[in-house]
Amino acid sequence: MRIIRASDCRSTAWKNGGGSTTEIAVAPSGASLDNFDWRISMARVASDGPFSEFAGIDRTLAVVAGSKLALTIGDAAPIVLDSDSSPISFAGDTPTSARLTAGAITDLNVMTRRGRFAHRLLRIREPQRCGFDDGDVALAVACSGTLELSFLQDSMNLTEGDAALLTRTGDAAFWIAPTPTAKCYLVLLRECRSQAGSGYPAARASVSHRSIRS
């Protein structure tokens, strides 16, 4: 179990001043926006505007703090999200824009390169035993509040902004216990070994001190 503390992840303002982004983890280690296999980040959105386009990338977004975000994906009608909404998935190469309805929000972003990795983003609302599904990599994020995480012989408390990277070991599961008011999310990552997609060999990740607009 690898702990990623919030203090180790630097947030950087967007060039247009409309928000800031913090990269939590990326694989392979040291990957750029042009060659990552997967990337997990949090962004503070302070103004309306389009998302950057990511060709060949699938992404999922969840609002974790603030009020509401109206998301327009392609030609579809806007979808209004708040911190109680389920995460929404969409293609990174589909033109997407966001409109704030009541001030700034913070969102959690998961991106995987299509054909290499697939992902799931799950909200963990109460203490529970979790598995890796059919994958080998999991990342738990304490977006707010605190949580206790146990895996194999290790037990650790995560506070706001912290994350933990877990690599599958046999059939071992892990235990996540968020406090009642915490916002906790679990990312499950699966490597696509063929076009059909199967298996989840462990991917090496790095904590990034590079932050850009998501």
Overview of the structural elements:
By secondary structure, the protein is mostly beta strands. Helices cover 0% and strands 50% of the residues. The protein has no helices and 19 strands. The protein has strands spanning 2-4, 12-13, 19-27, 38-45, 49-50, 57-66, 69-73, 79-81, 88-91, 96-100, 105-113, 117-124, 128-130, 137-144, 147-151, 154-158, 163-167, 174-178, 183-191. A six-stranded antiparallel sheet has the order 2-3-4-11-6-9, with no helix packed on it. Strands 1-17-14-19-12 form a five-stranded antiparallel sheet, with no helix packed on it. A four-stranded antiparallel sheet has the order 5-10-7-8, with no helix packed on it. It starts with a strand and ends in a 23-residue tail after the last strand. Residues 196-214 have low confidence and may be disordered.
Structural class: mainly beta
| CA radius of gyration | 16 Å
Strand content: over 45%
Quote the average pLDDT. 87
Largest sheet: 6 strands, antiparallel
Strand order of the largest sheet: 2-3-4-11-6-9
**Overall geometry:** globular
Termini Cα gap = 27 Å
The residue ranges in which pLDDT falls below 50 over 5 or more consecutive positions are 196-214
The helix content, as a percent range, equals under 10%
Secondary-structure element series: EEEEEEEEEEEEEEEEEEE
Number of helices: 0
**Count of beta strands:** 19
